[in-house]
Automatic annotation (TrEMBL):
InterPro entries the UniProt entry points to: CRISPR-assoc_prot_Csy2
Domain of life assignment: Bacteria
Listed name of the protein: Cas8
Organism per entry: Vibrio cholerae
Length: 640
């Protein structure tokens, strides 16, 4: 940690700029021990307008301010708006005061501000007072403790009051200001839900009830990520915001250019599975039955025995055709299916002599038509199993800002919201339908910056002004869902298609008409996976190793390029409670995003299905979308 004495002694080319940076957020804290007079002089002079900050070590200007009661009142008022979480990010129209820490702890594989030191809190309220806030809210290190004058000077007997007296502050002012500071609580949440522009989302907290959450940005997390990513170009993305002084001191410090963690996983080339069941329909017993059936007419045996053997072999071949048919598109014509079957047989050395044989083709046609008839009569098509496939969902313009510190794939909570909305829509006609968990296969992902264009507008006083704009990271994604449901009865295709939500993560979502025929239900996961029409892609799983800070995330992402950081849940900052104007009247709580590492994998016969099936879990202090493979006992212990 650099000391103020060392910084001044180094005599940099632009001392004023270096001193400003030393006491701002987004930079490591500076130690002021042994140089308290200069440190407090700098903090006092930082309250000047930027153009007037020529000499921050000017004692005369410092003394003049310390004897100004109006100046003191403005500075103390800024302490009321020292924030741990910024309600004005990303929408500067939002208002409120949040000065608190997240409730409880998280498991080792999840990351929030609860795992990093509670520093780099800063002022955010009114752009008029961002400079005035420097005196009492800017942080530094003194006597081994990181804090700000707004907290230290609550004690009227604190040694730094003596330093201020040496600089010109009166004894009367010291006592009065210490009393006012002591009345300002260290932690508080004072946010009204209306009129306000704070986002509200709803998530189920049980089978029958919901809660409303307002996600806000942790200033500690933003500073932690911004500092650590300065030398990490590969995994860093810059998101720019205008009107930074309206957003707060942290945004003003970086000029609105926040560094965020960006992931670069590839989905469009590798196959999403390596299952061998495309040949499992043809066993050695099936090949032997084919040979015996073909030789049957040439065998010198009694006719009754011939009929009995023909019946036996047809039953075995019927099982072979049934296994093959389970992996096909059931909407195709029988003649087309016969062509596909002959094609598959011709590619295998043991069966190529049976392919396109007129007698065998006649037999295959008979057996296949029987399967088609059974499929229709039994209502197998579309929903006759516990794994419902929703293929090739195309989303355009979805937000890639999954959290205030990550850019890339949409948040897992957005995918859960899509699935939950689908379930609620189905429940309008089928109340017993439930989605117990869901698997996501991403086929394509494209992330790019699509910022808004500022349109100049005329204000009420006749001046021309452009509205605040920000970079908008968006993504286009193609993915398929496999829903593990409790329902094995027939649901017609029209109901399934009309129940699909139209939005995901603020983007438009749809399935092409040509892909409606692939909406189907299967009794086994393997057949459901193999039914997906696009072979390229990867399944999303959770990286369950320890992630206690950004360095852990970067180390894992450097080792495995298929890892992606995204929001997987919300860490509560307060207990949910009834509030006026909460969404749909649900209990409401302020929360921050939980960051997790998403692993994209290829499914194989050795893969544990529980690692790719996600569901929402509710705990006392947080909500998280996690795979079934995560041990609930481990998570519960971590939340105590």
């Amino acid at each position: 940690m650099q000391t103020l004495k060392e910084l001044i002694a180094s005599n940099p080319d632009d001392l004023t700029t270096e001193l400003k940076r030393a006491f701002r957020p987004l930079t490591p804290h500076i130690a002021i021990d042994g140089n308290e007079l200069d440190a407090l002089t700098i903090l006092v002079n930082l309250t000047d307008k930027t153009d007037d900050q020529k000499d921050l070590l000017d004692r005369a200007k410092c003394k003049q301010k310390l004897r100004d009661e109006k100046w003191w009142a403005s500075c103390i008022n800024c302490v009321n708006y020292r924030q741990s979480h910024n309600p004005k990010f990303p929408d500067i129209r939002s208002e409120g005061v949040i000065r608190t820490q997240a409730l409880g702890e998280l498991p080792s594989f999840l990351l929030s501000s609860s795992k990093i030191p509670p520093y780099h809190w800063s002022y955010s309220h009114d752009s008029k007072y961002v400079n005035k806030s420097a005196f009492l809210t800017n942080e530094f290190c003194w006597d081994g403790e990181i804090s700000c004058l707004g907290e230290l000077l609550k004690d009227a007997d604190h040694p730094l009051w003596n330093t201020l007296k040496k600089l010109g502050c009166s004894q009367k002012t010291c006592k009065a200001m210490a009393k006012q500071l002591a009345d300002i609580t260290l932690t508080t949440i004072n946010v009204t839900l209306a009129p306000n522009y704070l986002t509200q989302i709803s998530l189920p907290d049980s089978d029958t009830s919901y809660i409303s959450l307002s996600p806000v940005a942790s200033l500690s997390m933003q500073s932690h990520f911004h500092q650590r990513l300065q030398d990490e170009n590969r995994h860093s993305a810059i998101t720019r915001f205008s009107r930074t002084t309206n957003m707060g001191v942290t945004a003003m410090t970086c000029g609105g250019a926040f560094r965020m963690l960006k992931s670069g996983a590839k989905f469009s080339s590798p196959p999403h599975h390596r299952l061998n069941s495309k040949r499992s329909w043809l066993t050695s017993e099936h090949v032997q039955s084919l040979k015996q059936y073909q030789r049957l007419n040439k065998s010198l045996i009694p006719e009754n025995s011939r009929i009995a053997l023909r019946r036996k072999y047809k039953i075995e071949l019927q099982n072979m055709v049934r296994s093959w048919f389970a992996m096909q598109d059931h909407t195709l014509d029988s003649n087309i299916l016969i062509q596909h079957l002959n094609h598959d047989l011709s590619y295998l050395g043991a069966t190529k002599r049976f392919a396109y044989d007129p007698a065998m083709t006649k037999l295959f046609t008979e057996l296949l038509k029987r399967e088609l008839s059974n499929s229709i009569n039994n209502g197998e098509q579309h929903t006759n199993g516990s794994f419902l496939v929703l293929p090739n969902i195309r989303v355009c313009g979805a937000t890639a800002l999954s959290s205030p510190v990550t850019v890339g794939i949409p948040s897992l909570t957005a995918f859960f919201g899509f699935v939950h909305a689908f379930e609620r829509n189905i429940n309008r006609t089928t109340s017993s339908f439930r989605v117990e968990s869901f698997a996501i296969c991403v086929h394509q992902l494209h992330v790019e910056k699509r910022g808004l264009t500022a349109e100049f507008v005329e204000k009420g006083d006749g001046t021309i002004s452009a509205p605040a704009t920000r970079d908008d990271w968006q993504c286009d994604v193609v993915f398929s869902l496999i829903l593990n449901t409790n329902f094995a009865q027939h649901i017609d295709q029209d109901t399934l298609v009309t129940s699909l939500p139209k939005r995901l993560a603020r983007g438009s979502a749809k399935i092409a008409i040509d892909d409606f025929k692939h909406i189907n239900s299967f009794s086994t996961l393997e057949t459901a996976i193999e039914s997906l029409p696009i072979e390229a892609g990867r399944w999303l799983s959770l990286y369950a190793q320890s992630n206690n800070n950004l360095s852990d995330l970067l180390a894992a992402m450097t080792e495995d390029h298929q890892l992606m950081a995204s929001c997987v849940g919300y860490h509560l900052l307060e207990e949910p409670k009834d509030k006026p104007n909460s969404l749909r009247g649900y209990k409401h709580a302020i929360a921050e995003c939980i960051i997790g590492l998403i692993n994209s994998i290829t499914f194989s016969s050795e893969t544990d299905p529980n690692t790719i099936f996600w569901s929402l879990k509710n705990y006392q202090n947080y909500l998280v979308v996690q795979p079934r493979s995560i041990n609930d006992e481990t998570t519960d212990k971590s939340s105590l």
